[in-house]
Every structure is written in C-alpha cells, then in structure tokens.
Amino acid sequence: xxxxxxxxxxxxxxxxxxxxxxxxxxxxxxxxxxxxxxxxxxxxxxxxxxxxxxxxxxxxxxxxxxxxxxxxxxxxxxxxxxxxxxxxxxxxxxxxxxxxxxxxxxxxxxxxxxxxxxxxxxxxxxxxxxxxxxxxxxxxxxxxxxxxxxxxxxxxxxxxxxxxxxxxxxxxxxxxxxxxxxxxxxxxxxxxxxxxxxxxxxxxxxxxxxxxxxxxxxxxxxxxxxxxxxxxxxxxxxxxxxxxxxxxxxxxxxxxxxxxxxxxxxxxxxxxxxxxxxxxxxxxx
Length: 285
Hints:
Layout: H1 2-13, E1 36-49, E2 62-74, E3 77-81, H2 88-94, H3 102-105, E4 118-120, H4 126-129, E5 139-143, H5 144-150, H6 164-175, E6 179-182, E7 187-190, E8 193-197, E9 206-212, E10 215-221, H7 227-232, H8 242-255, E11 262-264, H9 270-273, E12 276-278, E13 281-283
Parallel strand pairs: 3-4, 4-5, 5-6, 10-11
Antiparallel strand pairs: 1-2, 1-13, 2-3, 7-8, 8-9, 9-10, 12-13
C-alpha cells in the first residue's frame, strides 16, 4: 500500500503519463453541447425586388423580406449568428419597417447585450455585420479571407462591397483583440458549432452548422436568401459564382439533419414554419 501511495503522489506531481479524469463519464470525452436555436426578427424591408434575391425572377415581383439574427444558446455560451444593423445612414437609405435594434429584439429571449459571448458574422454586408459593436463582450468570428479581401491594413475599404463604417468598426474590434479570423472551410470554431465556406455571396461568406437535440441545424444566412432558392435549386442573384452557390446549397442538405432544418437568410415564412417562442422569435430547435 505504501508503494501504491507513493506512485499516486508521483503521478500527481508529474502529470506526464497520468490521464486526467474525463468530464464525459465512463472515461470518454465530454459531450459537445446540444444547442437551442432561435430566429429573431428585428425588422422588415418591404416590397423588396425579388429579382435581387432569385436569379431570373420577374422584374415586377416583390416581397417583404425579414431582417434576422439567430440566437444559439448552450454550453455556457450565448452566440449570435450575424448582428444586424443600427447606424442611422442605413435607416435613412433602406427605410426598414417594424424595426427595433438587434439587441432589443433578442431581449424577448431575456438576453442583454453584455450576455452575448460570441458573434459569428456570415459576411461583411452592412445588414449582417454593422451591429457587431452593440455587444460589448462578444468575440467575433469571421473568415480570414473575408476580412483580408475587404479591409485594408489601416481599416479602410479594400473592395467596395463593404461599407466604410463597417470596415472601420471591424478593424477596431480586431485591434482590440475581439476578432477571431477563421482559417477556411469546415472549421469547428466552438464545440458543436462549425462554419463552412463556398456559398460565394461574398468572397468568403460562411454558413453555420449547429448541433441540436434534433441533429444539425444549418443557418444559411445570405448563402440562401429564401426557401425558394433551396427548394427550386436556384442560385441567389447576388453571388460571385452561381455554380459555387448552388453547390453550397446542395452541401447544406448533406449537413442538415433534414431539409427543414436549413434556415435561409431573409425568408419571412421562417416565422410561420417554426413555432413562435416570443414576440419576433421562432424556435428552430
């Protein structure tokens, strides 16, 4: 017994060769979190030209599109996918209706701005990235190639798809150590949260796979604007490469637990296809 006790003491002092107990039970690794996912609507762009969303749509067709962020909670984290917008110049230009600031919209779930731990930015367009600085404690996750393609080393616009204020804001957040640049496709950035590239809405736009109790939910953001893109296999109109966009949409179908768990970026019927959880909020899973 004395020799056993001595061996245990040595093991404690020398960590090498002595495995730490697993938190997963029965000697296995800790299980990845199973997240809950909500779509949160913070406004509407009324009578938006359908041709801007669906390649080949009739010029006269329009529809009201939802402005959304997605809340992912689990494993001690409160994660946003995209951050919406709030700057007054966008309000004047685009005139959203039924609008509230994104942090006010997620308040329906009892979330305060400082509760948000992470924000996954799908791409650099103003309506998805502008609100990132509303959440003072959040780490930002953005594709490295996306950042470097659109933002100069001094924080100015490198390619015109990014707004100057968004570029300056992202540069400042990066300088403050709050931006994590994701290096490429199929990266698990947090346990149970993976990002994928190839949608080509912008240079390195990404979509997100989330582990839930029902399997993987895919948050497409603007890599698929509407259910019509997905169901009719039609590329989004605003893409750098239509073939790549269609390939990415097909890939989403292989990643999601079922087709109904692919969530497009601006389709208002998200809030009728899924159960209402609170005002402006649909429970995805």
